[in-house]
Design brief:
Elements lengths: L2 H21 L20 E4 L8 E4 L2 E3 L7 E3 L24 E5 L8 E5 L6 E5 L12 E3 L15
Antiparallel strand pairs: 1-2, 2-3, 3-4, 5-6, 6-7, 7-8
This protein binds calcium ion (2 copies).
The site of one calcium ion has 8 residues, from loops.
Length: 157
């Protein structure tokens, strides 16, 4: 990239940052919502899984529908030895859902769920079944022929 182009990109970045700063709310408010009192995962994530325009939350084997997050839906059976398949929060790690990532792996427009188990355990992809089937907890586990990511050269990562 030549210096003139680099300067133009930097100027655009600064202008965009300034515009965003002017539109940013002056006061950020937080609302604490407790999804569950059980320990299922070290990570959580958010996406509009049912495409109703409201952000939903995924945490371990479940997702909660926004905007009130009161309805819990199962993606997979939790495997912890604690109550309702949970893990002991004081001396266990979640072995089946350590990290949670969201990506549309099959390109159907619905966000899918990539969950990493505890280091050394399996990572799994759960495909979002779509608007009608998602409320029936019909997520499909897939580990076979999905091409996860390609680099700019077309190589699978
Ligand atoms: Ca939603
Ligand atoms: Ca998808």
């Amino acid at each position: 990239m030549n210096l003139r182009r680099l300067a133009a990109v930097a100027a655009l970045s600064l202008a965009a940052s300034a515009a965003l700063a002017e539109d940013a709310p002056k006061e950020i408010k937080w609302k604490k919502i407790i999804l569950t009192d059980k320990f299922y995962s070290e990570g959580a994530n958010a996406a509009d899984f049912d495409k109703d325009g409201n952000v939903d939350i995924v945490y371990g084997p479940y997702w909660w529908a926004g905007p009130d997050f009161k309805t819990r839906h199962e993606i997979f059976k939790p495997t912890g030895k604690g109550p309702e398949g949970s893990w002991k929060p004081d001396n266990e790690y979640s072995r089946d859902a350590f990290f949670a990532f969201i990506y549309d792996f099959n390109g159907d427009g619905y966000p899918d769920y990539l969950v990493y188990g505890f280091p050394g355990e399996a990572a799994r992809v759960y495909l979002n079944p779509g608007k009608d089937a998602i409320l029936k907890d019909m997520w499909q586990q897939r580990n076979d022929d999905l091409v996860f990511f390609k680099s700019a050269s077309g190589q699978c990562e």
